[in-house]
UniProtKB/TrEMBL annotation:
InterPro entries: DUF885 (IPR010281). This is DUF885 domain-containing protein. The keyword rRNA processing does not apply. PANTHER family: DUF885 DOMAIN-CONTAINING PROTEIN (PTHR33361:SF2), GLR0591 PROTEIN (PTHR33361). The chain crosses the membrane at residues 12-32, 38-64. It comes from the Eukaryota. The keyword DNA-binding does not apply. Keywords: Membrane, Transmembrane, Transmembrane helix.
Length: 471
């Protein structure tokens, strides 16, 4: 059973914590004396209210409050990380509403003002480092994602990691079912996909109103993926990953067979009504956008697109280099890397080694670099990735101290079939803080011909170890 009512959000939780903490001095009335209890109550309550609502007296308290607020308003992240092993708000999904965007923008502005008030105060080196990192994070978000000018410049609905598919993946991967309440929460969470999709529709319509047009190729891939999932919901709802995951996690230790069948029937009904209808509503909006979509892709076509592009570069590179400077730097490094690779190709006696494109293409088609196109090879790819990641991890002690290395292993899984077509070659999902859910490297096996053996290590370094797993 969740320790906190699942209908609560951060505001209600903060108020409850304040009441709880402020009531502690009352206990002192029984332990010490009335007058001392009143004095402590006033001082203690003043401190707690200051921490919760105003500029805290300590920089460290400000950090803690900011991160608590950030996490507790994002139930999906809470379920992924599972702090202290607790399943907080496990009937909730993260909020994609326009009003939540506005709320976060106000919250970030307030916290940034509080943070800047500490600028001239004495800090330890660790505090200064935290101050710079958190300040950079908040400031860049205020310039981009939560600015009035650029709040809707990102394509929230997209083919790579858009919420329209990530919501499904999140529930399947991170919602634990260890007891009956967890199963009930799972069903409620699935039902809330409908509300989340309506929020995505509002987001898409708001972008349309602001002339933020999603590129045609993005719309088409999202539409095709959603339509395929919708068809499965209508024709084979029992084969939906949401249903399969639910059934796999139910067992007799959770509830009786009769209760299991009842839960499955309830989930099936929700999939065939709420979730299916939500897909239809979103597909209708995307169909309208597709009918008017253009092929002039690029941020330059958006209002003040050049300025937004520069902000994105600043955020991702932490430099003030111009786009042209970064482009020229990139060309120099590409030339350097290609020359190093030519030396290796020459050493390996690869034909046409001097012609980079031709030689790499030839290497990709070597028999020793490709897998057979069958299901057995898909299992072999997963096993090879697992072995590769283990081998890399065994060498990491040479570069990272034990304190910098994660305690959980990185496992390898296949990207779920329902999202293979629009997903990249691989991606990573983080481990929970309690270690019960490992970090996971997901490999895309939609087309075995896309998996080239000599490229696997590069992908594993970036997406798994050290990569995102250490990050």
């Amino acid at each position: 059973m969740s320790l906190i009512p699942n209908s609560w959000h951060w505001k209600e939780l903060k108020l409850a914590l304040i009441c709880l903490l402020c009531s502690l001095p009352i206990v002192l009335f029984f332990l010490i004396n009335f007058h001392l209890a009143i004095i402590i109550f006033i001082l203690w309550s003043t401190l707690i209210i200051n921490i919760a609502y105003f500029n805290p007296i300590s920089l460290n308290i400000l950090y803690v409050r900011f991160f608590f607020e950030y996490l507790l308003e994002r139930p999906s992240i809470l379920s992924q990380l599972r702090p202290l092993g607790l399943d907080l708000f496990n009937t909730q999904l993260s909020d994609y509403s326009l009003s939540f965007d506005e709320h976060v923008a106000k919250q970030f502005r307030k916290e940034f003002d509080y943070l800047k008030s500490f600028k001239n105060k004495k800090m330890s080196s660790a505090q200064k480092e935290s101050y710079d990192v958190i300040g950079y994070f908040i400031n860049m978000n205020l310039k981009r994602e939560y600015s009035d000018e650029f709040r809707y410049h990102s394509y929230l609905i997209n083919q790579m990691m858009g919420p329209q598919t990530e919501l499904i993946s999140f529930i399947v991967k991170y919602h634990r079912i260890l007891k009956l309440n967890d199963a009930e929460a799972y069903i409620i969470r699935v039902q809330r996909i409908s509300k989340a999709f309506d929020q995505l529709i509002d987001q898409q319509i708001e972008r349309r109103r602001r002339n933020i047009e999603t590129p045609r190729f993005v719309l088409q891939r999202v539409f095709d993926s959603l339509h395929a999932f919708r068809e499965q919901l209508q024709n084979e709802p029992n084969q939906s990953p949401l249903m399969i995951s639910f059934i796999e996690n139910l067992n007799d230790s959770i509830c009786s067979k009769e209760k299991q069948n009842e839960l499955i029937s309830r989930l099936l009904k929700i999939l065939k009504t709420d979730v299916l209808e939500a897909h239809d509503r979103l597909l209708n909006v995307l169909r309208e956008d597709l009918s008017n979509a253009k092929t002039d892709h690029g941020l330059w076509k958006l209002p003040n697109g050049d300025k937004y592009y520069k902000l994105c570069l600043e955020f991702h590179t932490t430099t003030n280099m111009s786009p042209d400077e970064i482009f020229e730097l990139g060309k120099k490094h590409v030339e350097r890397i290609q020359n190093e690779m030519r030396s290796i190709l020459k050493e390996k006696q690869i034909e046409n080694w001097h012609d980079f494109r031709v030689s790499i293409n030839k290497l990709e088609h070597n028999v020793d670099q490709i897998y057979e196109n069958d299901e057995e090879s898909r299992g072999k790819i997963i096993a090879d990735y697992s072995q590769l990641i283990d081998n890399i991890d065994n060498e990491m002690h040479r570069y990272f101290s034990p304190a910098c290395r994660p305690t959980t292993k990185c496992t390898v899984e296949r990207i779920p079939k329902f999202k293979e077509a629009t997903s990249p070659g691989a991606y990573y999902f983080p481990a929970s803080l309690d270690g019960k859910t490992p970090g996971t490297f997901f490999a895309n096996l939609r087309n075995i011909g896309e998996v080239i053996k000599f490229k696997m290590a590069t992908l594993a370094y970036h997406e798994a170890v050290p990569g995102h797993h250490f990050q």
